[in-house]
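input
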Amino acid sequence: MNDFINRQQELWFLNEQYNSTASSMVVLYGRRRMGKTSLIREFVKDKPFVFFLATEESPLENMREFAKQINLNDYHPQPLPFDNTLDTDDADWELLFQTLAERIPDQRLVLVLDGFQYLGKTDPSFPSLFQRIWDKHLQHENIMVILCGSVIHMMDAQTLSANSPLYGRRTGQLMLRDIDFRYYHEFFDGLSYKELIEHYAVTGGVPFYIEVFSKKTTTRAESGSHKRSYLLAKIGRHILSKQGFLFEEPYGLLKNETTDPGACFSILKSVATGNNRIGEISNDLQMKQGLLPKHIKTLIDLDILEYVVPITETNPEKSKLAYYRIKDNFLLFWFRFVYPEKTRLELGDMTPVLQHIKKYFAPHHMVSVYKSVCQSEMWLLARQGHLSFTKLGPWWDKNEEIDLVALDSVGDEIVFAECRYQTKPMDVDVFDRLLYKKSLVDWKNDSRHERFVLFSISGFTKQLQDLVAGHEDVILFSLPFENQ
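output
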């Protein structure tokens, strides 16, 4: 694959900053495993750059490594005024950056400070110091600085919040999010649309997880000829095995990305078992409700948890119908199928866990994941001009629910969609039921133009196809729209 998959917009943004006639400072952040460093390497591969990876070592050790990096580039022919051993008396961040600024080549230089959050963690004064360095030595030079970090709450405190010394200095910021499902076929050769969704249900859109599952580390001989067994073999190797890359992944993720990993872990565990409202989570964990919002906000900021309200809700913050759901597919899978069996897996007893996953993967996990895939496909239909809407999400009241409803805030089009992940083709009863439920949705009742989309992973009965034949307001969606 020649293209950098699903990162073209991000590369365009970075190149736009690079092509500016003035200096620029970009904050690039996002949770770990999202491919931030890979994106930067792709961006700088044809440009003069200095790449410095900060660590949690002492400020002196970080200065030594930085001195080493800025001395190794071909366009710095003169030796630095100190060697790479730097003793305490020589340690001076400002002198290092001043020296770098004086030797910037004619061509624009990219300076990458990766792991930026660790510089402020080991030395709380560093963000203030870097503000002075930027104002005094860098902002008038032909340079693009990228401050990159993965601990979101630390990056926010040090670079983005109004209380940060660097607030107002940045010329752009970019939060790297997961890979959209519509790009999955570019990672996995030879898989059907249904099989791609199944892989997405386990790995989500996290580049590192996709990479682990796309490697040819599991053979057909190990898993049998059936491709569902092939996926189960990958799950066993990479997630259920104590030696697997992803066996302990949630612990490491929450430890690195949150200030209170224990509380966040408990919240996710509770939500995964069906406690999806504040009161339910509080009762389950025996934790005061007032302590939950800050941890929930952290998980939402990390794109792990999602606050969901009916699409027609006019006051989302006070909705009595709102609930929380785990948005990240991998974590949802892990808390549903792996965490409850951790003791068994620690003893190496994997077989019954695989059997449990095989039995409940589709009815308990794929149903919700398929709805998120359908949501992505709905947006694609809108981009292609087949539908017109500006808002999309589920709708429900106390008695009924519709999988997806799309609203056009500048027009009068409303789209009702149902999503079925099941072994049998969708029949007319689903459409008939949708025609009843759509009358319960209170939105522009007197002027709206109603349309319908029916998603079915197993296709549609002839009776349903005959029923909707010739109706432009109904779309039957089984495979990606461009393939129909």
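quick obs: The two ends are 25 Å apart (CA to CA).
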